[in-house]
Structures are given as structure tokens and as C-alpha cells.
Amino acid sequence: MQEAKEMLVLADKDLEYYESETIRLRSQTDHVEAQKNYILDCRIKLRWILSRFRQLPNELLLLIFEFACEWNLLQEHPWLDNIPPSTKIGSSPLSHLPALAITAVCTRWRTLALSSPILWSKIKLELSLQAANNSGFTSILKLYLERSANSPLFLFLDAVGKPRMGKKTDLLPLAQCVHRWSSFTYRGHYAPSRAIPFTSRHFGSLEDLDIELHNNVTGGSAILDLFRIAPKLRSLTTDLTPNCLIDSAHRENELAVLLNSCPNLNTVKLRQQDGLQFKVDFPPHKYHTIHSLTLAVGDHKMARDFMKVVFKSHAFPSLNELHLQTRDEYIFVESAWPKDAFHGFMSRSLCTITSFSVHGLGISDSDFIDILHLLPSLLELSLDDHWLQLQSSPKIALSFVELM
Fold first, then answer.
1. Torsion over CA: 270, 124, 111, 142 (sign)
2. In this structure, what are the phi and psi dihedrals at residue 212, rounded to the nearest 5 degrees?
3. What is the Cα–Cα distance from 365 to 203, expressed in whole angstroms?
4. Which residue of 160, 243, 254, 380 lies most exposed, with the fewest beta carbons within 10 A?
């Protein structure tokens, strides 16, 4: 019995010893593990120091940043309109704000991004005009405008819905810097003046303008007239054709006024607006600064009337390029060619067209040949009707090849 008691005492002592050894070894293991993690962290930092990307000069790094910052998307949140926004934002909204994302990487990147106003000057805005004023949206817009400093602004505004009373205050910071607008693209159901509370109509830096309305506009709203004072404007894209820009009271053609008011405007692209009927009820205007004209058709039934209105309403003596295409590159439009209207256009314009293209528009070979007869100075010809050929037989066939 005594011997068993002595063995029990020895067993307790052994257990105490092993317990203490376990604690000591565990402590050593934790220490070694901590040292290992420290070394791993140091190795990562050392590799970062030696990485080729870190050795890039600031100038090259900024070029990469500019390439990455194509658009900074500011979308109103929460989105309360029945019409969904154009862009679906997932679980990471920061991915749509590349300038902000760059500033969150490291001190060097943040310093470079904050010192480069151009990264903050490419802004795409999506908002519902029916929702209540959003102070958060306005705050982030102000942040971008402040960080863009005096850099020219490249803006894309997608304004959905009918304007709510007082809603325009969300975009007041944008209106206060119209003198910096270099490029402005607008998509909306109403005129831009219904979305933006303009305090000035002097667009001294504006070079590119693109206006497209989702509704059929029948006149009465000053849309293009807003941009009449844009001395540097060189490119205009719009679906507002002449007959939908005539005020019924004053019979003033806004497009004509804009073309005459901007001395540097040389490139015009007119898009056909679906569901709109076209007719000519005013004399043609002559514009001497336009060098390039693009007509983008979309409605099979009205495509001919659309082209007819444009050809009968204008004369471009300095025109060098004429492009006919569909609004959507993945569709084709089969339409009769307004032969007489085009003949009249060419005889009035007396222009020298050296570049001509037809993309996705179904024109018969006889009409196409007739067009070429009117273009004796042609140097560049582009024809793309592959979508059309998937649906029917080719329009430009052997007779055209024989002409060549």
C-alpha cells in the first residue's frame, strides 16, 4: 500500500514536469512562429522594394493610372426610379471609382493620384431626376471636382426620369464649372437644362458634344441652343435632326444656329431617332466648316426619310468625309436610297469627298454605283455589310465588281 502511494506521488511530479515542459515548448513554438511570420513579412517588403513595378518612374506610373481611369462612375444610391440605371454595380462599388481605388493602395500611389487632376476629371454620372435630393451624391461629386483642380472635364451624364422640383441642385457644382467642360455626353428623357441648373452658358473649353434624348422631341424646347456659345466646339453628335428642333412659333432651326455659331465645328454625326416622322419644310442651309458627316440610321421604315431630310436640309461645300452606318453595329437596316435628295445635296454642296463608307446599311448595287459616280475624287472606300449578308443575299454584287 505504501509503495502505491509513493508511486502516485512520483506520477504527480512527472505530470507537473511534463505540463511545465509543454508550456515552455509551446511558448518557444509561439516565439518561433512569430519570428517566422516577421521574416515572411520582411521578405514581402524586400521583394516589393526590389520589384520592377516599384522601380517604374512616376511619369510612367501616371500614364498607367490614366489608362485605368477611363470613367469614374458616380451613381445615385439608393436607386429609387422604376427605370433601372444603365450600369449594374455589384458588391464592390469602389471598382467603378478607379481614382479613389488608386489612393487606397499605398502612400506613393495616393500621393501620385492626388497630384494628377486628370484622373479625377473623367466623370460619368447616373441619377434619377425623380428621386429626392441626395447630399451624399453631391458630396462625392464635389470631391472629384475639387481634386480635378483646373483640368478639363470629360463628362457623361445619364439622367433618368422626369425632373423633380428642386432636383437640379444635386448638379449645381457641375453647372458652376461649365468653363472647364471639354467633352459632354448626355443621355436623358428631357433637355439637359432640366437636369442641370446652368448659371452660365459660356462653354469656353467645350470641344466634343453628344446629345441623345430617350423621348421623341417634337420641338419647343431649347436643347442645342444651350451650347451656342462654344467657340472651340469641333465635334457634334446628336439624334436631334432639323425637323425636331424647330420651334413652332419662331420657326428657328436650332441645329442650323449651332452650326453657324461655332466656327471650329468640323465633324457632325446625326443619329436617327426611332418612331419620329421626318419631313422637310424649310430651305437648305449651307455650312462651310463641316469636313466630316456621319448618318446613323436605326428604323427600317423611316431610314430613307431621315437621310432625305438631312440631304435636303444641308449643303457642306468643305465636306471631305461621308459615312453611312447603323446606330447599332450588330444590326442591319435595309432601306431605299434617297437618290434624288443625294443628287441635290451634291449639286448644292459642290464638295470634294475623298472618304466614303457604308456599314450595315442595305443599299442596292445600282444605287451604290450611282453614288460612286458622284464621287470622282474618292480615295478611301469602306463597305461592311456582313450582318446584312447573314440575313439575305449580298446587295453589292457582280455589277459593282465589274465597275471596279
1. positive
2. -140, 125
3. 45
4. 380
Summarize pLDDT for 35-73 with one digit per residue, the tens: 999 988 888 878 777 777 777 888 988 999 998 888 999
Closest CA to 237 of 327, 144, 110: 327
393, pLDDT greater than 60: no
Within 8 A by CB and 6+ apart from 297, the residues are 272, 303, 306, 307, 324, 325, 326, 327, 333, 335, 361
First to last CA, the chain: 121
Conformation bin of residue 66: beta by default, left when phi > 0, alpha when psi is -120 to 50: alpha
Using an 8 Å Cβ cutoff, are 286 and 348 in contact?
yes
- Of the candidates 236, 147, 119, 247, the one whose C-alpha atom is nearest the C-alpha of residue 184 is 236
| Phi, psi at 87, each rounded to 5° | -110, 130
Place of cell 501616371: 62
What's the pTM value of the predicted model, to 2 decimals? 0.79
Distance CA 358, CA 210 (A): 22
pLDDT confidence tier of residue 137, bands split at 50, 70 and 90: confident
- What is the rounded average pLDDT of the residues 266-284? 74
Q: CA torsion 244→157→86→91, rounded to 10°? A: -170
Angle between helices 339-349 and 365-373 (to 10 degrees): 10
Query: Rounded to the nearest 5°, which phi and psi values hold at 283?
Result: -70, 155
Q: For residues 140 and 170, is the Cβ–Cβ distance under 8 A?
A: no
Q: How is residue 79 written as a grid cell? A: 436607386
Q: What is the residue whose three cell numbers read 465635334? A: 235
Is residue 220 very low, low, confident or very high in pLDDT (cuts 50, 70, 90)?
A: very low
Q: For 92-115, what is each residue's pLDDT tens digit?
A: 777 788 999 999 888 889 999 999
Whole-angstrom CA distances from 339 to 88, 216, 346 are 44, 27, 11
